[in-house]
Write a structure and sequence with these properties.
The chain is of the alpha+beta class and 386 residues long. It folds into four domains: 1-44; 50-62 and 287-369, conserved putative lor/sdh protein from methanococcus maripaludis s2 fold (Beta Barrel); 66-73 and 205-282, Efflux pump adaptor protein, beta barrel domain (Elongation Factor Tu (Ef-tu), domain 3, Beta Barrel), CATH 2.40.30; 82-193, no CATH class. It has helices spanning 3-43, 111-139, 145-170; strands at residues 50-56, 58-62, 65-81, 86-91, 98-99, 104-108, 173-175, 180-182, 192-193, 198-215, 227-231, 240-251, 257-264, 276-282, 287-293, 305-310, 325-330, 332-337, 340-345, 352-356, 367-369.
Length: 386
């Protein structure tokens, strides 16, 4: 055999050993890296407990309500205007003054009309005397019955002329049509008013009407006499109570809404016509519901959840009690009321749930509870900005 043929097996053997050695070296390096990574992971500090606030779900008595927005309207309101033209001679009114029905507010010049009235009254008085004389003459058969009828008709015509002239004079006087509060008046003595010129507004402020609309689908829930509660931006924190007083018998075909009217007492006259109001109407009877603050709910596309708190069991290596843990639970939500939401399914009364810090939690996470600050849980929340 040639020497070249003897070298081939030994060369192949060396190549095999080289490959095996390379693989072993790679495995050794990989093992060392894995060992380092494992040691690094074990050396990392374990995540500490998450600080959260909690609350126990409790049952509360809820009054079903129907929410709406409306506009305040005076029970009686009118923009008073001059019926005839004339020169203002007297203004017996100050802006914002309370007025009584029939009170004279503005007087137009009526000297000519009054003088004519006096003349007509004198004529009527003469006609009355003539009628009385004619009655005595008729009794004595001194005149005919036709002459007596003529005297009586003349007296009645004179009386009608006096009444007509009195109406003309009354048109020169602007009087309050009802008890109420006057608005701002800018008319002064000496001003000339054209017929139909608005002089002042008078509004009766107690009680007040509230006009609002409800969908036709809610019509069966409401009835006259139901309590109504008003919230106004002008009076934050205050609730004005009234009663539903009327329901329109016709549905608006363009919106499919029904107009509803409520009456609200306003003895202090704090409410004024035209105000915007948020209101709720009590419908149905009160019933208990399990509630939580809305901040406790984690809203997800696949379902709403809460984090339920489970007490820690046993003790750790140092002999200290283990911290509580949390577990996510799906819940079925009901109606909302202020900051609260009703829980229909998922948890029971007395269950402790997390109300803040949920973004840092996962199933099985340990927690520490700090309830020094709690999320809003008010039935009637008010804005916090000042």
């Amino acid at each position: 055999m040639s020497p070249r043929a003897d070298k081939k097996p030994s060369t192949l053997k060396r190549m095999i050993w080289m490959i095996v050695g390379t693989i072993a070296l790679i495995a050794l390096i990989a093992g060392i890296k894995v060992l380092l990574v494992v040691r690094m992971i074990h050396s990392l500090p374990k995540p500490g407990p998450v600080t959260v606030s909690t609350i126990k779900a409790s049952e509360q008595t809820w009054q079903p309500t129907l929410d709406a927005v409306g506009t305040l309207r005076a029970v009686k309101g009118a923009d008073l205007a001059a019926e005839v033209a004339g020169l203002v001679t007297d203004v017996n009114l100050k802006s914002g003054q309370d007025v009584k029905q029939g009170q004279l507010l503005v007087q137009l010049r009526d000297g000519d009309e009054v003088a004519q009235l006096h003349q007509l009254q004198a004529n009527a008085q003469l006609a009355k005397l003539t009628l009385e004389r004619a009655r005595r003459q008729l009794a004595a058969k001194a005149i005919s019955e036709a002459d007596f009828d003529t005297a009586r008709a003349d007296y009645q015509a004179r009386q009608a002329a006096v009444a007509q002239q009195q109406v003309v004079i009354q048109k020169k006087q602007l009087r309050a049509p009802f008890d109420g509060r006057a608005g701002i008046i800018t008319v002064n003595p000496g001003d000339y008013l054209a017929a139909g010129t608005t002089v002042v507004t008078v509004q009766q402020l107690d009680p007040m009407f509230v006009d609002f609309n409800i969908p036709q689908g809610e019509l069966a829930k409401v009835k006259v006499g139901e309590p109504v509660h008003l919230h106004l931006d002008a009076w934050p924190g205050r609730i004005f109570n009234g009663k539903l007083s009327a329901i329109n018998p016709k549905v608006d075909i363009s919106t499919r809404n029904v107009q509803v009217e409520a009456t609200v007492p306003n003895p202090a006259k704090t409410l004024t016509p035209g105000m915007f109001a948020k209101l709720s109407v009590d419908v149905g009877t009160q019933h208990p519901l399990l509630t939580l603050p809305q901040a406790a709910i984690v809203y997800n596309p696949y379902g709403d959840t809460v984090y339920v708190v489970h007490p820690g069991k046993g003790k750790d290596a140092q002999g200290k009690p283990n911290l509580p843990t949390v577990q996510q639970a799906f819940v079925t939500l009901g109606a909302t009321r202020g900051d609260q939401v009703a829980i229909l399914k998922g948890i029971s009364a007395g269950t402790e749930v997390v109300t803040s810090g949920q973004m840092k939690l996962k199933n099985g996470a340990t927690i520490t509870v700090d309830n020094s600050v709690q999320p809003a849980d008010s039935v009637n929340p008010t804005p916090q900005e000042h």
